[in-house]
Amino acid sequence: MFRTSLSRWTSNYLGFLPNRLFHSGIRNNLALESSNYKVNESHGLYGDSTVNIRKATLSDYNTVIAIPNQTNTTDHLVDRYCSFISRKTNTGYVANLDGKDVGFLLTHLIDDGSTLVLDKLRVEEGSDNKKIKKTVYEHIKQTQDPMIKTASINFDPKMTDTHALEEYSVKDWNLVTVKTKETFNTKITDLHEKLKKHSIQLKSSKRLFGRDVTKIFSYPESHQHLFKDERLLKSDILYKPVASNIDLVMDKRTLVIGSNMTSSPAVLMSFGTYSYTTAGLHYNLSFHGNMNECVDEHLFIHMISLLNRGNKNVTFEIYVDDAKDMLTVQEILQIYSFQKNKVDNRNNVEWYEKCLC
Question: Which InterPro entries match (predicted)?
């Protein structure tokens, strides 16, 4: 009875959202997929050891996941490896040391092919961390257009060599933008009850589709009100607001909400993407535009979209342009039983880029 009524209640707000889960089982997907192509290898010699680099395939899933995550962030790769590797604009690299796979790096080619994002770094514990990362990076430099810029996320300047693969220096890496990040947690059962108790009337907010985002991207004058430093953030990756990025931004895991769309200075957009982790459901949510109103509507819609996607814990990882805007988000989330994660919050998150040459 509860599920039936809840489903009907949810559809009043989000009839456009499918009830089924997209998460259909990674192992089953891997069993059905295979890839056969000639692998180009790059060799780096360190003493008596040889590091070989090859392109990752779907069949590398178990090997890659066994390598520890190095980025000190939530590990989305366990759930999303197949979709990441299958995307044409992505390439995964596996580092093999003396017959053992010891490293992995995922790259995303975005911005009309002008930016290569370095992501999902993994290196085996006990191996020569810096040498393996350097070999992967040198391989990328040899196989990519030297005019491409590489981009990397950095939560803490002291950790940049972990994320960026090379030793950090202000001279080499240019700061692109800075966001404020915080994470909040709750139980899915508590969220169910709070959403029923604190329902709100939507005034100006609605779901946006590819055609809507295309229209927004086609008007550069709107970018200054929406996208800080001319960058759109979705799932830890910064995109330029250009047409070629729309399919990358609007994937099937992503829900985009917009409000006040007819008034450029008042427009607010939010991009939410879910994934499954060992801790439960994880939701990466970024806000762009005017945070003075409709934030509650955006959060309400995003929360409702998760009701049929998890049965344990929910973590919201939220990014805003200004720290003061996070206070508004926090006040609203507390109404719906979310608690601020005091351990995982890093406040200022920075993105850097440099020329690959």
Answer: Acyl_CoA_acyltransferase, Hisat_C
